[in-house]
Amino acid sequence: MNPLTSDFALEIVNLNKAFGGLVVTHDVSLAMRPGERRLIIGPNGAGKTTLFNQISGDMRPSSGTIKLFGTDITQLAPYKRAHFGLSRTYQIITLFAGDTLEHNVTLGLLGLLPSRWQMWRPLSVYGDLATESRRILDTVGLLHLAAHPVSDIAYGEKRRVELAMALAQKPRVLLLDEPLAGLSNTERSTVKSLIAAIPRETTVIMIEHDMDTALDLAETVTLLNYGRVILDGDRDAVIADERTREVYLGA
For the segment 187-240, what is each residue's pLDDT rounded down to a tens digit? Predict the structure, then answer.
């Protein structure tokens, strides 16, 4: 299938993962359309991050398929998935604390190179990556800190650097794993605005426990529990469903 003619940005069919004798995803099937804003919710241990790990290639499913714009990426390494337009952030921030913000974002840009980055080669040989890194930092309001080490900046700013690294890869599908976790009200508002400003050329799929904020960003919602899809559909319909209150909202 030609990726440009696929009806779905991301299609997951009968995804299963057994880990240590425990089934952590069970027959998960989902389809996200290009430009969609999808929120994935569920109690702790529901399998949300495990699902993201399988989509991104950090964990291989036991069975099932994952297609990105019609291309089967189930067996591809994470860096190869970036070439097909997939990028993500992590629940636990994964930055190089001793390096500058500019250097961290430059590393994110290296994922777009036609071949794997050779770590012994200086970044200066990669042309205009530093200029592009500074442009991306400017979009998240951190250009003034470009030359500072990550270890010197606040937690909320680190969240923005991680978002900048993901956006640097020019994703067609972006996975955000709890991007608002641990942020103050002011920081949460800033990151929410950045997510809302992501162009519709990018499909955004987000895991988030801050429901008040996340629901403003979502059009569709998937409810997971014990690795299974319990509900999937329009945001308002899923949130109003009694099963959502029972499984997740505790009402």
Answer: 999 999 999 999 999 999 999 988 888 899 999 999 999 999 999 999 999 999
d(CA 192, CA 163): 11
The sign of the dihedral angle between the CA atoms of 118, 124, 130, 131 is negative
Q: How many helices (H) and strands (E) does the chain have?
A: 9, 10
Q: What does residue 86 show for φ and ψ, rounded to 5 degrees?
A: -105, 130
CA-CA-CA-CA dihedral for 228, 230, 235, 237, to nearest 10: 170
For residue 158, CA distances in Å to 128, 135, 190 come to: 23, 17, 13
Give the C-alpha separation, 72 to 49, whole Å. Answer: 21
pTM (2 d.p.):
0.89
